[in-house]
């Protein structure tokens, strides 16, 4: 017998090699060697090879993770060893060298009382001016560097501010209005209006 639908099986009793047709699977057959009958079971299906079961790109994923892991380990190693070389770690005689601390540059700490806060005085004065306008959202002030703006620091953190504002009046007309007054800084972020003339 030969062909695609033919298979070779062994008799479960006498181990005789038998050629059978595929159509006989799950039927009772008689062994020609011992004469006993038995149920002919289909051969077990072989599992697919491991390579066929692996998802595509698996090797590429593993290689990618290996590269990323190696890069992370290198970065950790460099970070830990940053700035240290064998020459730095030991002197010429091989003994460790004591590190000399590098002094941090001294920062000049000045109190708000000691600073010239004329720029902030001008900004705070603008808020007080806006409170007195008919249309405060329309207010436009000249820049601090403008020749029309004069700010003078007086004694005791008091500033004299003279400038002008362009804003709409109650009728909607745009007008330029000069103003002048004194403002005092009473805390790091606190200001007090002493007087305002518009």
Secondary-structure blueprint:
Blueprint: E1 6-10, E2 17-21, E3 28-30, E4 37-39, H1 50-53, H2 58-80, H3 86-89, H4 118-131, E5 150-153, E6 158-168, E7 174-187, E8 190-197
- H and E string: EEEEHHHHEEEE
- Bin the strand percentage: 25-35%
State the oligomer.
Answer: single chain
First-last Cα distance: 120 Å
Count of β-strands: 8
User: Which stretches are low in confidence, meaning pLDDT under 50 for 5 or more residues running?
Assistant: 85-89
- Binned, the helix content reads 10-25%
- CA-atom Rg in angstroms: 48 Å
Structural class: alpha+beta
Q: How can the largest sheet be summarized?
A: 4 strands, antiparallel
The helix tally amounts to 4
Let me know the average pLDDT.
80
Summarize the structure.
This protein is of the alpha+beta class. Helices cover 23% and strands 27% of the residues. It contains four helices and eight strands; from the N terminus they run ββββααααββββ.
General description of the model:
This protein is of the alpha+beta class. 23% of the residues lie in helices and 27% in strands. The protein has helices at 50-53, 58-80, 86-89, 118-131; strands at 6-10, 17-21, 28-30, 37-39, 150-153, 158-168, 174-187, 190-197. Strands 5-6-7-8 form a four-stranded antiparallel β-sheet, with helices on one face. It has a two-stranded antiparallel sheet with strand order 1-2. A hairpin with a 6-residue loop joins strand 1 and strand 2. The longest helix has 23 residues, at 58-80.
